[in-house]
Amino acid sequence: MATVKSICVYCGSSAKGPASHAAAAVELGRRMAENNIQLVYGGGRVGLMGILADAVLAAGGEVIGIIPKFLDELEVGYFEATRLEIVDSMHERKSRMAELSDAFAVLPGGLGTMDETFEILTWRQLGLHDKPILILDQDGYWTPAKKLIDHIIDSNYAAPKARKLVNFVDTIDDLFTTLDALPDAKLAVEAEKL
Ligand code: AMP
Q1: Where are the domains of the chain?
Q2: pLDDT (tens digit, 9 = 90+) per residue, 121-157?
């Protein structure tokens, strides 16, 4: 994992889900800090987002938050971040988060998390980046998303290769083991025909 210096994490702005989800956010944050991997995220202090950022800082790691102006108040910008960038729009936020990261990890979350995840998947499908995308299927939370991708492929709206765009992992341990085993990320590579 030598080349992974920063991971963009998408996760819920709520923490009202099962306690195991918050525990996963804490473990991910701690292990990122221990591995000197910077957290890039949406810059909020609410929900799993805040729990994750707290865990990174508590373990001595770095947190880069990217938040649009209008959400800075709603989600309450995480001013303790090592760096908090205030941007003009959601689109700018997502681009900036992608730009600053070597890999993407997805924890449980809501519609925003799903939007961010599918966008980064489609950007990879289009060859705009070739950075690893790992989805933590904590307690089967994202199994419906995995099934949806299979359904899309079975219905010929994506080629079977699309399965390779993303790695579903069951635990934070698996996440780091999988990341370690993946080839180095390539930026803006020529798209493989998917
Ligand atoms: P959620 O998973 O809905 O709790 O949202 C997680 C993060 O995604 C939060 O930082 C939200 O601001 C963000 N988000 C919510 N909706 C969208 C959207 N349509 N596009 C991009 N990000 C979003």
Answers
A1: 6-184
A2: 999 999 999 999 999 999 999 999 999 999 999 999 9
Q: Residues lining ligand 1, judged by CB closer than 6 Å?
A: 12-14, 42, 44, 71, 75, 90, 94, 109-113, 115-116
Task: Determine which residue's CA is closest to atom 2 belonging to ligand 1.
Answer: 110
Residue 72 confidence class, pLDDT cut points 50, 70, 90: confident
Distance 90 CA to ligand 1 centre (A): 9
**C-alpha–C-alpha distance, residues 157 and 149, integer Å:** 10
Kindly report the CATH class assigned to 6-184: alpha beta
pLDDT digits (tens, 9 = 90+) for 161-174: 999 999 999 999 99
Identify the three-state secondary structure at position 62. Answer: coil
Is the CB of residue 114 less than 8 Å from the CB of residue 149? no
In the chain, the amino acid numbered 104 is F
In the block, tokens 């090592």 appear at 82
